[in-house]
Design goal:
This protein is mostly beta strands and about 110 residues long. The chain has a single domain, classed as Metal Binding Protein, Guanine Nucleotide Exchange Factor, Chain A, CATH 2.170.150.70. About 10% of the residues lie in helices and about 40% in strands. The strands form 3 sheets. A 5-stranded antiparallel sheet has the order 4-9-8-7-6, with no helix packed on it. A hairpin with a 5-residue loop joins strand 1 and strand 2. It starts with a strand and ends in a 5-residue tail after the last strand. It binds zinc ion. The site of zinc ion has 9 residues, from loops. The site of zinc ion (ZN) has 9 residues, from loops.
């Protein structure tokens, strides 16, 4: 089980399994965010908003919505959008317990499709 939450506790994400790897993406946006992605199918991830829903940011081909907590600003996850058949929710593993995440191998990527 992987449990992740933003700094203020507004956004909580839960999945039944730990990822085998987490991905450090070096594309122009992920590098700025400083995130580590754990990829799942959308139906695997339970997302709870305790106070307010996330705000999103999308760019270029708009195949991904990047979600952040409107209160504390943490990037919590991204989700694929309706403009693509590809379905994915990526949890920002930095929102989870660092003692758990630091034991998972990190893969490097240069961007979507890599
Ligand atoms: Zn928050």
């Amino acid at each position: 089980m992987l449990e992740a939450k933003c700094h203020c506790g507004n956004v909580e994400l839960k999945v039944d399994r730990l990822p085998e790897t987490v991905t450090q993406c070096n594309c122009s946006i992920c590098f700025r965010y400083g995130v580590l992605w754990a990829y799942y199918k959308p139906e695997e991830v339970k997302i709870t908003f305790n106070v307010e829903p996330t705000k999103t940011y999308s760019w270029l081909k708009k195949v991904i919505d990047f979600h952040h907590c409107p209160i504390c600003g943490c990037i919590t996850h991204y989700s694929s959008t309706d403009v693509t058949d590809w379905e994915c929710v990526a949890i920002n593993a930095k929102m989870a317990d660092k003692d758990i995440i630091n034991k998972i191998p990190v893969k490097e990527s240069d961007g979507p499709g890599d």
